[in-house]
Amino acid sequence: MWRIPVADSTSVPKTALTALQQGGVIVYPTEAVYGLGCDPDDQHAVEKLLAIKQRPVEKGLILIADNYGQLLKYVDDAKIPMDKRADIFSSWPGAITWVMPAAKNTPKWLTGQFDTIAVRVTNHPTVKRLCQELGKPLVSTSANLSGQDTVTSIEMAKSEFDQQVAFYVDEPLGGRTQPSTIKDVMTGKIFRG
Fold it and tell me: Which end of the chain has the smaller Cβ count within 10 Å, N or C?
């Protein structure tokens, strides 16, 4: 009988997907900057990401997805008024992050001190592929220490994080010059322009 070897935590992942499935944190390209990402359902991985970034859990995190269906587990879709849906879906896929009511079971390691969750459906081909392969969204936060300049190259990311990150996805950014706009779906308030 053939046995499939089980990777231990010291093994080097061969792909970004393997790293994510093993609870690792990856660096990957987004629309404007490189991001730190992990499996949003893996509390240990999210805590590792927050420690690497030196970000307090209370601030909450963004989820980035291939399609809205991947976000439904985390979003209380029933609370989103019909008249707001045109704004949301006309902006996606794209670089607009919407702050939406969080589903009741969405973990606090994602929402932080809030009863909302920030989510985005991306048009970046690399991120779309990662989310398709993982079958769910990724945590998406800029690949920099909290309060520091954003990272716009893999070399900068490697210099900043070295071996703390399980895998570096060395593919191009999406061509935007600014990180995604963040808007509240209920009020229209812009948190980041």
Answer: N
